[in-house]
Every structure is written in C-alpha cells, then in structure tokens.
Amino acid sequence: MTKRMILPLLFGIIGCAILISLGVWQVNRLAWKEAMLSEIDARIATAPVALPDNPDPDAHTFLPVQATGTYGTDYIRVLVSQKQIGAGYRIISPFVTDGRTIMVDRGILPIEEDTPPPAPTGEVVVAGNIHWPQEVDSYTPEPDEARNIWFARDVDRMAATLGTEPVLLILRNATPATPQITPLPVSRAGIPNDHLSYAITWFSLAVIWFGMTVFLLWRIRQRTV
C-alpha cells in the first residue's frame, strides 16, 4: 500500500462506518415503531370505558371511550383528503355528557355537501377513541372562519372556538347514527413507518460507498505500478 492510498482508505472506512451505523439505527427504530404500533392496536381494540375525569394526552391517547349525551348545534368543518376517495369535511361537533362538553369527530361528509345534516336530537350513545392529533405545522393555513373551513384538527383552538374541553373523541359508531356522515375511526393507518426503507437506503449507500472506495484504490494502485 502506498501513502497515496491511506487517505482514500480511511475516508472509505469512515464513510462506510457512518452509513452502516445509520442503517443499524433505523433497524432499531423499526423495532421500536413496530412495538409502539402493536401497543396502539391493542389499546384501540380494548373495551370502551367511561370518559376519564381529567383526560391526559400522555395517559389517554387512543383510549376507547363510550359516552351518552347530546350534540350541540355548532360544528367545525375540517378539510381532508382520502386516498382513492377524494376530498371531504370532517365534522367536529360539541357533545354534552354528564355536565361536561367535549368534542366529537363524527366522521367525513362528502365535499359536495356544503352543510352537514342536523345532528340527532335527544340522547346519543357515542363510542370511539380519545385522540390529540398532531396535524398543525408551520405550513398549515389559518382557518377560514368566515366559511367555517379548517385545515387541521387543532384540539386546543377548536375547543376555544366551540366552547368545550380540549378533548376530542374520534367516533367509531353512534346510536342513532347520521348516515350522511361516515365515521373515520382511529387506526394505525395514519402513523408512518418508513424505517425499513430508510434502513435499506443507508445499507445500500454503504455498499455503494464501499464499491467506490475499492474502485478508487484500484485506480490509484494502477497509476503507481
């Protein structure tokens, strides 16, 4: 080995080590994410319980809940898009139960329906999962309050607008139901799990880096022969 080969060799070894370590990290993240998703599936599928006195995002996210109460007349429309279906509005309504008022995400209304049908009158039994969606980021437009169109479910802000607790129940089923509004229950489908593809990418780059290093060393050796 000549002195000219030492620096490229070190560069190649360090680069491969970094890329492989990133791939291993993604594999570990994959195991963590799979365990988390399994826990979410198990929590979603458990029997519903009464609404907690003080719902907490850390302790009660995805908690199945059943409650009896009445819908308020106000509502918020959240513009969403479903794969292979298209755009629609999530209908968020206030719900009074046991002297408390929370929000219920009743499901999706087709975009062609500009105004949701009136909520059922009288007592309604709702069952679903408590959730605090993290949908707002720096790119989220401000709500168009004049037309009552929101672009993300901001629990705290929606609660302030509707005058409810900052608690959102995502409906699974209701009795009586509103046929025009299709519930969109909580599921793991909206939680990304791309760690396997990331791991493959990093390991592939490590192989390419190794091959380029070997080729460079071969070229240097050929020039010194």
UniProtKB/TrEMBL annotation:
InterPro entries xref list: Surf1/Shy1, Surf1/Surf4
Annotated CDD domains: SURF1
Top-level taxonomic group: Bacteria
Signal peptide: none
Membrane topology summary: Multi-pass membrane protein
GO cellular component, one term: plasma membrane
Record's keyword terms, sorted: Cell membrane, Membrane, Transmembrane, Transmembrane helix
TM regions (residue ranges): 196-218
Localization per Swiss-Prot or TrEMBL: Cell membrane; Membrane
Family, as annotated: Belongs to the SURF1 family.
Name of protein: SURF1-like protein
Organism from which the protein derives: Litoreibacter arenae DSM 19593
